[in-house]
Amino acid sequence: MHTFKFALAASMIGLAGCATPPPSSNPDDYGPEPTNVEQIIRAYMDRALKDPGSAQVRFDRPLRRGWYSGQYGWVQCLQINAKNSFGGYNGFRPNFFFIKHGRVIAASHGDGGYGDLLVNARCNS
């Protein structure tokens, strides 16, 4: 029962971060649509991963307009398989990237547990 309560609370917390407001009728609210999403995300991964060159990335969802933490921007959800500290791959994990004005403003990464719940809530809202 405690596991169910934790999962429910985690889902609610994850959804609260990206509640969907009415779409803005002003395209300027979102900033320009990034045409180099892969470059933007790879630059972020260069700073975040231990071995960014070995990361396998699957862009399995389209870029979309979104809302996160009180602002409009662009959402890219994808799968990343990266090496861990021991040099082995962890397996593909879901990742959420919120992009505005050509840079990653926020990101969430799946970890096989709670992180997956959080990313999936943000990517499916």
List its salient traits.
about 120 residues, alpha+beta, 5-stranded antiparallel beta sheet, 3 helices, disordered N terminus
Structural features, described:
By secondary structure, the chain is α+β, with helices and mostly antiparallel strands. The protein has one domain (2-123). The protein is 30% helix and 27% strand. It has helices at residues 2-16, 37-48, 114-123, and strands at residues 56-58, 64-68, 71-81, 93-100, 103-109. Strands 1, 2, 3, 4 and 5 form a 5-stranded antiparallel β-sheet that branches. Helix 1 (2-16) packs across helix 3. It is globular, with a radius of gyration of 15 Å.
Low-confidence stretches: 1-16
Main sheet record? 5 strands, antiparallel
Number of domains: 1
Q: What structural class results from the helix and strand content?
A: alpha+beta
Strand content: 25-35%
Number of helices: 3
Through-space gap between termini: 26 Å
Shape: globular
Estimated radius of gyration: 15 Å
The percent of residues in helical segments reads: 25-40%
Number of strands: 5
Element order: H for helix, E for strand: HHEEEEEH
What's the rounded overall pLDDT mean? 85
Set out the fold topology:
Elements: H1 2-16, H2 37-48, E1 56-58, E2 64-68, E3 71-81, E4 93-100, E5 103-109, H3 114-123
Antiparallel strand pairs: 1-3, 2-3, 3-4, 4-5
Helix pairs in contact: 1-3
